[in-house]
Amino acid sequence: MTTFRELGITSTYSEKLADQGIKNPTKIQAQAIPLLMEGRDIIGRAKTGSGKTIAFLLPMLERLNTDAGSVQSLIITPTRELALQITMELKKLVEGKGINVLAVYGGQDINLQLKELDRVVDIVVGTPGRILDHMRRETIDLSQVSMLVLDEADQMLQIGFLDEAEAIIEATPKSRQTALFSATMPDEILSLTNRYLKDAHQIMVQAEDIVVREIEEYVIETTDRKKQNTLLKTVKDEEPFLGIIFCRTKRRVSKLNLAMQEKGFLTDELHGGLSQAKREDVMARFRDGHIHLLVATDVAARGLDVEGVTHIFNYDVPLDPDSYTHRIGRTGRAGESGVALTFIAPKDYATFDMIERNLNRDIPRKTIRI
């Protein structure tokens, strides 16, 4: 089996990964790292759970010029949560190395970010809106960026950030190295890659194999009237260490979270309607185990990687196969096992049948008696 050292990663970072229990590269890491180390542009089509974050962080760190005195690398993400997640991964890798990393995103006190930008920052991780804000204030200079990463590009398109992302790309040198990662490749993303990437090498890695191998999946048939009580009974039976419950809308998240708290469950909600301070507080308490269950929308939980998530509950059926894979990919991480349970009422049968056909597998049914 290939090792990180064989891919060109020095002991400095391979040992840091080993300390985190990461010994061997995933498929996308094995394919992307050598190309990025050579300075090639790449397009990575990979779903959640494939290990793409490490795939671009390691070459970025290996090729970083810490004597430059300016921003060398820029990572653009669609959501604040993903920006924070990547920043946490980076800080674990660069601890004690004298490399300065800064996350910039909306909802955070901009004066704190301005203070941070007064010192030399080597790597910036941020959302398009806040990066543009700093560019307009002339508090961030991207003229020396040598590596640019666009992560979850299809999600950027879905949220409506693609124009902002393009404006940021235009502010970086044409000589930069660019890596774009996306679970899907709609026409708008392909058009962007044609305009801004040079002789890009395409990598396609499917995460479905990971999902099948490490996650037990079940469907629980219920009715809209019985769904909440069926969920509560299932949670009691399953006794998750940490679990995420997915709902389709902010309103449904809040309603279910309140109902579960009234029943004595240690839950909280995560959705786009919360302030950034509240979202960060919720995530900190979830990671620390003070909350056992996170009730969330898809966008709020996109890109989250919390160690120890044992269960995913699809309270509302996802709208498409990609959303299903993204959701259940929050568990079964790093070789650990996980359980994903999807609650379907009669009105959901057609949607879920389409998901199963697309995944090319039937997901077993499980009966819950209430």
From TrEMBL:
Residue ranges of the TM segments: none
Domain DEAD-box RNA helicase Q: 2-30
Molecular function via GO: helicase activity
A family per Pfam: DEAD
Domain Helicase ATP-binding: 33-203
Stored InterPro entries: DEAD/DEAH_box_helicase_dom, DEAD/DEAH_RhlB, DEAD_box_RNA_helicase, Helicase_ATP-bd, Helicase_C-like, P-loop_NTPase, RNA_helicase_DEAD_Q_motif
Motif window: Q motif: 2-30
Location of the Helicase C-terminal domain: 214-370
SMART domains, alphabetized: DEXDc (SM00487), HELICc (SM00490)
Keywords associated with the record: ATP-binding, Helicase, Hydrolase, Nucleotide-binding
Family label: Belongs to the DEAD box helicase family.
Stated name of the protein: DEAD/DEAH box helicase
